[in-house]
Amino acid sequence: MSLIDNERKIKELQAKRAQTQDQSEHDELSKEIDALTKETYHNLTAWDRVTLARHPSRPKASDFIEGLFDHFYELHGDRCFGDDQAIIGGIGYFHNMPVTVIAQAKGKTLEENVNRHFGMCNPEGYRKALRLAKQAEKFHRPIITFVDTAGAYPGIEAEERGQAQAIAECLYTFSDLKTPVICIVLSEGGSGGALALSVADRICMLENAIYSVLSPEGFASILWKDDSRVQEAAEVMKLTSYDLYEKGIADYLVKEPTGGMQNDLKLVLDNIDQYLLKELDVLTHTKEKELLEKRYQKFRKIGSMS
Amino acid sequence: MDQLFKKRNEELKEFSSWLKRHKVKEKKEIPENIFKQCDHCHESIPYFSLIENDYVCPKCGYHMKISARQRIRDLIDEGTWKEYLEKERSQNTENFPGYDEKLKKAQMSTGMNEAVICGVGKINQTRVVLCVMDSRFMMGSMGKVVGEKICKSVELAMRKKLPLIISCTSGGARMQEGIDSLMQMAKISAALKRFSNQGGLYIALLTHPTTGGVSASFAMLGDIIISEPQALIGFAGKRVIQDTIKQELPEGFQTAEFLLQKGFIDMIVQRHDLKNVISDLLKLHGGRL
User: Fold this and answer.
1) Which of chain B's residues have a Cβ under 8 Å away from the Cβ of A244?
2) Which residues span the domain enclosing A30?
3) Predicted ipTM?
4) pLDDT digits (tens, 9 = 90+) for B216-240
5) How far is B93 from chain A (nearest CA, A)?
6) Residue that terminates a domain, selected from B40, B64, B88
7) N or C: which end of chain A has fewer CB within 10 A?
8) Which residues contact B131 (CB under 8 A, 6 or more apart)?
9) Which pLDDT does position A187 carry in this prediction?
């Protein structure tokens, strides 16, 4: 049975338990629920993680902006073409410290998702990110990026307006940005579209987030020419937060409550809050030259021969 | 005797006019070692005339794919090429199923160890660092070794204060190496940024095809970006775009000509002129002799 089926079953049992008057039936149901919960969330497979990362009720970037920052002002547009709704950018306070926030935003409803392209950015989204990053550098504000995208938007207009160039420019500029950057991978991080906002001093991943060279669907389709092998793809891709942490690409994992962060968002927010507080303190007290050298080495060492 | 020749000539004429009338522009079985069929106009071209013509179809001007070694012969002054890191080979460190076989097959069929060749050589007497990718080697995909070789080349150009040229052709990141291959994009872009800050000149040469992660990193970061005619250049694959938007793609979409029109490359240069154009550009930037 799939994770989603089990979840539905657990919900049904919980509803049944709420209605019952009989204490022994109540206890019986509780036992059943516990057993099923354990079975469902114990030893999650990579595909289960993918399912959780894309869970319909999983909190989105907007929840994190609301939960972590005060007096947030959204700033719009790339000053070239338009305002990509797949990115929410702006400024606000993090514990009295002004920061710039750049977040890939999936929507909560279908309508919002259509507007936000399911978090898949167009070139103007990346150029908005670039503009806000340069602005943050100018005013010495640390940058917090949130990654949540299956990949950059594949469309005719996206190509016409230079999707490749926009992503390349992000990698180029963020690598040398003279202000601290912390990247938080919320749920899905796919391909160059996610990498564009991941060139940072610290990369932190939520436990049920995934990060990969491309989506498991794309992987199965390109490598094996078989879309149906997507679960198998997820298993071989090493895309879970634990894989990324083991590889040293993710610096920190944020534990999630059983069943995903939607079950206790506050716990996750508190954990991220503490992490940001600690790391921003370190990074803002690091000399610019050292900061840039360490960021360079963070990526330089991946696949290094010497 | 004269009669015989005349008769034979007439027969030949008749045969050739018959051929013209019955010309079929479809793929035909042609002995690979004598003729090559143009990918674009499907005309059969004798190999010797193709070689004389730098692998550009004499009929339609289509620029066929060439090997990295051929590209180096075309661009670099004879006897000045010095390759480095030539022995580096990819390892299947993640134990990805089938990757070892794919690598071996690519190595056997191309005689190369990896999808990029790097070295130092002279272009009309100007010394440059040159990286050349080869699409025959696993679609020119970029894994850790390709990324590292290119990154080391950028660093060498930085150290020696030499201009850098990267001849790109790639399907993108090498999926068998997972996230590490994606990270090569960030690694090389960061190195190029340092090179640029130092005042280094980087010319990107885009050849057919340049897509995916390579296009979204160093291919688009040249101070000057040159492309060969009709090269396919883009980020997302055509099939992916079609599946997403559910409509036909316009003609000429993602070609070099399309990118020139949209403002993403500086110029399209015919293969015959490439060496001279690059050498002129190097001189304009005070290339060292």
Assistant:
1) 179
2) 3-43
3) 0.93
4) 999 999 999 999 999 999 999 888 8
5) 11
6) B64
7) C
8) B116, B117, B118, B149, B150, B153, B164, B165, B166, B167
9) 96
